[in-house]
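During the reporting period the student researcher (J.K.) took over the structure-prediction task from the postdoctoral fellow and processed the backlog of single-chain submissions. One of the processed entries is reproduced below for the supervisory committee.
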Amino acid sequence: MAKPMKNPPAYGVTSADHALQLAVILQVEGPLTVSAAADRLGVARSTAHRLLSTLVYRDFAVQNEDRSYRVGPVLEIAAQTQSNVGAIRAAALGPLRALVDALDETANVSIRTGRTARFIASVECSQALRVGNREGMVFPAHLVTGGLVLLAALTDDELAALYAPAPTDGSEERPDLAQLRTELRAIRRSGVALNLERSERGVVAVGRGVTDANGETVAAVSVSMPSVRHSARRMTEVVAALTTAAQSISATLSAP
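J.K. obtained the following structure tokens:
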């Protein structure tokens, strides 16, 4: 059975959502101060402190001697991975804001972990009808624009090996590899991935790859918009702005 599209809930518990966002930030980016947490969430320092204290209590975070917080035993991952993700996010924020200024649509940067794609940075546009912030969200890589860009960086053999292990619980949606290979070849030729309501109804996204100093595709920058504002005529403008953003992020990551 196909996995349903991931749509935002009709309601949400703000404090729980904020705590989950902080847990993701600690996991993929590394240590965080109370002030930085407050800035990222747009909340008071006292609120950020309560959220971080709760994460410490539940072993999702640990407080350092300098009073900053790092990921706890529940979410611990390699320090090198945190460093890489933090560097990509830092390099991306300026170009993402410029991309939003140019197109007035929401812009994102994502990375791939195995068969999933994680949004590590998101800047919303100012339009009333817009795609919301995706930061911290995880999707099957073959269903989202950034994931498709990153899968296109793999060879056919690497792609087959990636999807060879069967899911243990049967809940993971499996792509048609023959169809996916055809799509990825088209992305390699054009350098652009187009997602027409693939991951979420009413949302269209366009993406390009971001490379590091070794020329490897390490992330993807994308623009998400309501489908009512997408048109073939607008693609030239969107792709040009995306290319500028991707080149800017890549240049920063490649700098000594």
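The committee noted the following: The longest strand covers residues 217-226.
J.K. will present the remaining backlog at the next meeting.
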